[in-house]
Amino acid sequence: MPTSQSSEPGDTRITISNICSVQGFKMMRFILDRMLGRMRSWLRLFGYDTIYAEEGEEDGTLFLRAKHEGRILLSRDKALVERCRRRGVRAVQIRSLDIVGQLTEVMIHLGVDPSPKMIRCTLCNDQIKRLNKDELEALREEGYDYIPVSPPDDREFWQCTGCGQVFWEGGHWENIRKTEELLRRRYMTAERLRHKLEHWIEHSEGHLESYRKAMEEAGDLGLRDVQDDLKQAVQAMEDATGWLMSALKRLKMEDSGEG
Length: 259
Ligand SMILES: [Zn+2]
Ligand SMILES: [Zn+2]
Prior knowledge:
The chain has helices at residues 16-20, 37-45, 59-69, 78-86, 99-110, 133-141, 173-220, 224-251, and strands spanning 3-5, 29-32, 49-52, 72-75, 91-93, 128-130, 157-160, 166-168. It has 259 residues and is an alpha/beta fold. The radius of gyration is 26 Å and the shape is elongated. It holds the Pfam family Mut7-C.
């Protein structure tokens, strides 16, 4: 996360059009269950409006909040995800336990873009705005001495319009960039895997055709044992194709009620 210190709440708000001006940014809103706490600040860092289940909040409340606020529910709880989908709320079951795995899942299944956007507060989810030199100077004069005096570079600063938190590209920034790169590499690997699967599925249909023909030929020759073996091969090929198609579906964007 960007470095942050507490301060007084600010009052200037940036507009939605500002948010949407981040190029190619597909706006999605999320609600997370309590088991996915680490995803919260990352999704906010990536610019997504993300809220988190309150302590002791019931599954039913999560569902209602997702429905009323148009949020996608992310949960480790398969049963909850299925209930939400049955009742028309978009929900994705997260299976990974580690944060990079979890982010990979939302990137592949929902198209989450893993680059820091600096439009949303990682702490409170409100919008943040870039501070200009005068605003920065004003904050310093007000005694916000945690803001580095005369930064060595033209580093940028942001302030949350909700909680007033000030952010800048601090020591954690390198880790953020590394995670972004890792996620992008993972996305490319998944993309290649998708292409391989598509290729194999297409290919296996051709093979299946040949196996069936061979099976018929063996039958015509009266070679029942050969025919039986080839029949097994046809069945196995059909099964394999089915599994490949299932794997491909899971690698694509989620949109159905299937988990
Ligand atoms: Zn905030
Ligand atoms: Zn082949």
